[in-house]
Amino acid sequence: MGVDFTVAIPTYNGEKRLPEVLERLRNSCKRALQETQTQSYCWEVIVIDNNSTDNTAKVVSSYQADWPRQYPLRYCFEPKQGAAYARNRAFKEAQGALVGFLDDDNLPAPDWIAAAWSFAQEHPAAGAYGSQIHGDFEVTPPNNFERIAPFLAITERGSKPLCYQPQQKILPPSAGLVVRKQAWLNSCPPDLVLTGRTGSSMLTGEDLEMISHIQASGWEIWYNPAMCIYHKIPHWRLKREYLIPFFRGIGLSRYVTRMLSVKPWQRPVATLVYMSNDLRKIVVHLLKHRFQLRSDLIAACEMQLFVSSLVSPFYLWRHGYLDRKQSENLTRAAVK
Question: Fold for domain 5-238?
């Protein structure tokens, strides 16, 4: 039987996080083996080691030793650091027509693969669709955390499927995202402007850039609540030392994702409109929270997002993210 669905797990130094994810997937394999008479599809699991320096490879090898052979577990090494490079490698390695991405801190429900497969059959125009994602917190989140929860890939949009409309400017995160390989091949340029966070940079947004290209090509983007995963949030990801640089990275990347749907001749005006709106948000936020920015972590994160979004175009130009080739990629998406 050929492979219909590929579960791809990009990871960097994931030796401590991977086992719980792989255990969940191995249990799904065992469950499927008991239901072979009713199952009409087959899958594989690929771990994409994104230049790890720990024992990630050994962890995967230990699981391969007794992994159900009907649902292969494969390992590949991607030396270029960055989530975009790891995802591109996953698409190239995947044998399935559908590629479902799990981060190494995502715990899928037992029926996650089945729900993902069923949704693709029911929605052939869906180029990508995201999961319902619940937070699994090591410690209690701060007050008003729900205001920033979506930025940490927590996606709870109700119990009914939802099609994201381009004018809404809302897209699902890459955690728990399923992408039709053909949609990626037909839509995405070989080199994205954004490549993902690395040790020296918190610049992010590469997942939204990819999905925006797919949507701009005419594919539908959906939220599928039947696909449920739990996102483990350790205590340090709720600290100021992590969150402020994290929101700075989101904001600094925003010019790219904002301009993907804007025609080249409209960009000067669109940039001014976005900057004016960012300034408005900063002023309103200061008036509302100016005495709480030091004590209110959520308000501080929001302010960092607004300020970084304002300076995003200047930062990206100065640091070489918007060279001629990358600008052509933005234009390609806008004219589709």
Answer: Spore Coat Polysaccharide Biosynthesis Protein SpsA; Chain A (3.90.550)
Q: With bands split at pLDDT 50, 70 and 90, how would you rate the model's confidence at 327?
A: low
Strands 220-233 and 106-108: antiparallel
Tens of pLDDT, residue by residue over 157-177, are 999 999 999 888 899 999 999
Task: Specify whether the backbone of 111 is left (phi greater than 0), alpha (psi in -120 to 50) or beta.
Answer: alpha
Average pLDDT over residues 12-27: 96
Contact 302, 149 (CB under 8 A): no
- Three-class SS of residue 178? strand
Token pair recorded at residue 30: 């065992």
Contact 183, 214 (CB under 8 A): yes
How does DSSP classify residue 220? E
**Domain boundaries in the chain?**
5-238, 242-334
* Contact between residue 104 and residue 48 where contact means Cβ atoms under 8 Å apart: no
How far apart are alpha carbons 10 and 297 in whole angstroms? 30
Q: How far apart, in whole angstroms, are the C-alpha atoms of residue 209 and residue 272? A: 21
Residue type present at position 297 = L
pTM: 0.92
